[in-house]
Amino acid sequence: MAHVLRKELTLSQIIAMAAGGMIAAWMVEIRYWFELTGPSSLLCLLACGIILMPLCLIYTEMTAMLPFAGGENIWTSNAYNWDIGWIVGWFMFLLYLSAMPNVTIGISTMISYLYPLNFIELKILACFIISLWFIMVNLEIKHLAKIQNMMFWSTLVISVLASLIFIFNEQWHWKNLSPWFPKGLAGLSAGLGLLMFKFIGFDLIPQLVEESNFSKKKIILGFVGSMLCTFLVYGLAIVGVAGIVSNDWIAKADIVDPRVADMIGIHWLALVIVIMGAITCVTTLSGFWLAASRTIFGAAVQRQVPKKLAEINRWGQPWVANLVVYICSLYFCIMAPEAWINYIFTITVGAAGIIYLFVSLSFLKLRKTHPEWKRPYVCPFGVFMGIESMLFCVYCLYQCVVAMDAATWIALGIYFFIGALLYMYAKYQQRHDPVNWEPFIPSPTNTTEEICENSRA
């Protein structure tokens, strides 16, 4: 079998996958946003986008400098050591896995608009979707990318048009958005910390860049483009529905946008939104699944996990890594409580906060320890960008800890117990089988052949 990922992804496809990772089942999630902070969730999203932009520029520099699957794990390993990289890699895997129930239960909830389902039935359907997608991601990526590219850009247009139909409807009034801050400063503060979740997805780009076929100087377009698309869709959605119905109505709705469309007598629009939303979630599922499997692939190249996990099938897909993603996705889906939105938000933002914090630290350190490495893109005002990003990460982590419930702590406890066992296994193998488990950290000085050699089982 081959051991090199194929370079088949265009810039447009990278943007579609990254933005698709951010734009998910907002018509289901938006009720949680309004529970947090009402219409001011729009301001929280805008603030998060602005605050996260320095981190995007940091990611751009690091991705262009070290364009390997595994991304943040490899960056941290280069800046610090193999052990720190392993920990970051395990958080990365958690980040992408935790998105799976968000997407699949979101799709199931949208389908329940057409045919009512209880929560157990929602999870069964979600597990079926995960199983179906396990088959899809093991086929040639260029075909999956083309399908996702078409679906994402078409649903982006439809979602914007749907929001504009709401805004220009006679029942829409600006005064309905009041009060903007129903939960006061506390709600705004929580929203600012937890709505960072909706911009998690730009970090898919480092996982996919090894399979891209465009100049690394254009990577900045992938990061900025995906962020702008995300804010456009979410921002218009918030204004569109909040101008028609009350904050309390939104917070209690099962699925918001289609219900609003029915309320104003446009049932065909409700059906279009449900179909479009399901398709959007499929693009999200693709992006996070690919990122999760590439995270494992990169860890296998570094010999943090068995090299078998870097094995690639005849379609160029890491099939063993995909199998691990499949099993773990089923676990997080089955573990999801009925308050699944809060469960997913806190796990995902917490994992992202840890990863982004270590990326910022690694960025600052590599600037000092390896100034000679070629950087196709250089982040301006590096020290300021790094410090600003670290402070925001710490703030988000605090908000996550405050918001976590018992179900979340249990799921995380089991996950990190398994991680501790895998880490100890890797350290044991390093001592007893150093030939096959000697740490390898890809850097700009390595050739493709060297990386390929270290991924062979």
UniProtKB/TrEMBL annotation:
GO terms for cellular component: plasma membrane. It is found in: Cell membrane. GO terms for molecular function: transmembrane transporter activity. It comes from Synergistes jonesii. This is Amino acid permease. The chain crosses the membrane at residues 12-34, 40-59, 80-99, 119-139, 151-168, 180-200, 220-245, 265-297, 318-337, 343-364, 376-400, 406-426. It is a multi-pass membrane protein. Its main location: membrane. Keywords: Cell membrane, Membrane, Transmembrane, Transmembrane helix. It comes from the Bacteria. The keyword Membrane applies. Pfam families: AA_permease_2. PANTHER family: AMINO ACID TRANSPORTER-RELATED, MEMBRANE PROTEIN. The keyword Membrane applies.
